[in-house]
# Entry
Amino acid sequence: MQGRDLVVRLRPVLAPLILLALVVACGSTGDDGDDDGPGPDDPIELEPSMVRLTVPLGSTVTQGYTVYSTSMRGVRTDITAQCALSLDATFGTVAASVVTVLPHGGETLVRASCGARTATSQLIVDLGGRIIIGPNTPANAPDLFVIATPAVDPLREPRIEYPFDRAVTPVNMPALEPQWTAAGNDLFHIILTSEHASIDVYTTSLEAPLGEPDWAAISYTAAGGDLRITVEGLAQASPSTKYASAPVDLVVSRDAIDRTAIYYWASSQGSIMSQTFGAVTPATQVRDQCTSCHSLSRTGTRLGYSRCVGNNCSNLFAGFLKYDRNTQTWVEQVNADGATIRGSYSTFAPVGNPFPTDDQALAIVSMQTGNLQLYDPDTGQVVPSNLPAVSTHGPGMPRSGLMADWSPDGASVVYASTPNAGQWIDLNGGAIARLDYTYSGGTHTFGEPQFLVTGPITLPNGSYTNFFFPSYSGDGTLIVFNGARATWRNFTDARAAGQRLFLSDAAGTWSTDLTKMNGGDVDVDITWPHWAPGATSDYQWVVFASQRDYGHKLTTANTSPSCIANGVRQCKQIWIGAISKATLAATPGVDPSAPPMWLPGQNYQTNNISPYWTADIPIN
# Structure
């Protein structure tokens, strides 16, 4: 009886335990009672979790993906059909579960979105490719370089002439054309490498003009880093040995410059030309008839110029053009041939100060009398102000005031001030000065000059005592300007005064020589600096003219005879230089520049000077 009683007493306890076991075996609340099906809160995975692909230039590669949901019991279910895949459009496109990867090297993420749940997969793309340039380049050129033995001989090693080592290029600069010396070779292998690119180019030429689509793929792949360029050469008559150049590193900025225009004076043609940044088509003529010394408003809708009248260049007169958006043409508001404004360099007040729209405007002109004068550029009438008087003030007054540039906010004007009365085009002893500007009650008032840069500045190639051509940066924080060791201009040798670029902050608390942008301690006749408009992340960009060699395509030995005049010995060209924002922030007063890039699209057999970089037209 005792045993029976024990069994009976245990039954009520065992029954609930058995029921609990059955409940657990049948499922959990997290699986909605179904172990084999995916729940809405189950984690998901995108597979493969990491992919590394090589995409050839001009081609694409596809990669398939699968999305899995994993239940609490570890059951994996393919739910790809319930999800949407996406990735950065610069890297590729998606159709269902397949990604088509474009020729754009770098790293990105492929993302799966399944309702509120997401998963990612790392995608690493390497850009590869082989380019053969020129009809005389043998088809087996790649094989010849593979089997050739590397050798060292300074006389046989090509030297890269362009681009310059450590030059900085905007990512959307038109296609690069590397140039190099032959060094006794007649077949060349150009190797372009970055973290995610390896491109091989073969040619018998001494330059490699890369096509626009290929260059865009290469530059956007290298953006934010360096693109290393190396040239190997061999002689086809004895191809068993090859010789390599020293490498050149081109820094590719992440900055993509807006669609803007550079207006410059093709002085050997006597015309003002316009070249839209990024275009490689021939520049457009804006004004001919020996028009020179021009300026552009920051909106790109007004243009000031000066011109020799009656074939007498001692009688320069100023004129003004305005862009008509309706007809998309430049309209001459004030024709210099009327000989009413005997002046030269000009600048425009920005829209917003003092006038709210571009329907009204103000311009400042450097007058033949050696001072600055305020004008209405639509009528050619003098606008009353105290500017003619204060622009001659300063030590040793009366001084000369010329080459003004109005600040982007309209609150000040920076200009060249010299102790020599009557200077209005050429100058010596120039200092960089600033006038504050206010407009109240219909009165235009300019403050007394504040001298920002007076010199001398001593460099390894001499003492710089003449400063001129100041230009405000687009944000108004910096001033780039020219410096020279003597009078500008020298009609016997334009390089003799050593014109080069300097930089200061807008308050004049520091200044520095732009040594890297100037090409070191050399004299290559650098003049007319101005800034690119628009916002950029890594650099500010300067445009200027120089008698610097453009590889071997333009040197003193092969320059056009039309450029040899007034002391110029080779065609001056337009160059673009980078100013590092990071260096400016970390060490103000230390050279923040880099070696420059040649502006593609310009005619390198014309003398191209006085570049103004402004908004393109028409403006939306």
Q: What stands out?
A: The chain is about 10% helix and 45% strand. The domain at 134-252 is CATH 2.60.40.10 (Immunoglobulin-like). The longest strand covers residues 117-133. The chain has three domains: 44-125, 134-252, 261-615.
